[in-house]
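Task: sequence design from structure.
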């Protein structure tokens, strides 16, 4: 019994595999998100296509999706936040971070994905990348001729600068 790749700590046979194999539909938007991650990790490209919202399938690049899935080593999924997307909802948003290795470099894909229910089945609508926060240095700037902040008594340019 192997654990599911989505990080749920459940056996794969009781988690994402039945959704990917078409044995049942995802009950929540989060469950579909987890199944889509597992599909990327296992190369189940047909599921990735079929789980797209019908209105968004025309511009789906299957070849690019296949390349990304197959040329990456999928390292883990972290669900950051879910907004709506329960069994009784018709829309939901799942924010997640998928960690993967591509060409030897570990990368993080941080996204807010929108999901919608059609005929009681969840579909992926679209996603928006979450950009990292800009951090502003709040410490005072040290000039070249100012005393070095390390406490040596020397000018900054002759010490740590």
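Answer:
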């Amino acid at each position: 019994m192997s654990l599911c790749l989505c990080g749920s700590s459940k056996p794969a046979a009781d988690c994402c595999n039945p959704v990917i194999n078409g044995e049942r539909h995802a009950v929540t938007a989060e469950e579909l998100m987890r199944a889509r991650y597992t599909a990327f990790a296992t190369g189940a490209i047909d599921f990735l296509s079929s789980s797209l919202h019908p209105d968004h399938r025309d511009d789906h690049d299957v070849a690019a999706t296949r390349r990304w899935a197959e040329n990456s080593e999928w390292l883990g999924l972290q669900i950051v936040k879910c907004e709506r997307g329960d069994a009784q909802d018709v829309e939901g948003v799942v924010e997640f971070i998928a960690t993967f290795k591509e060409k030897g470099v570990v990368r993080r894909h941080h996204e807010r994905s929108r999901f919608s229910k059609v005929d009681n089945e969840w579909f992926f609508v679209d996603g928006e990348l979450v950009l990292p926060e800009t951090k502003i240095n709040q410490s005072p700037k040290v000039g070249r001729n100012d005393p070095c902040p390390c406490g040596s008594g020397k000018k900054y340019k002759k010490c740590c600068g």
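The first helix runs from residue 17 to 20.
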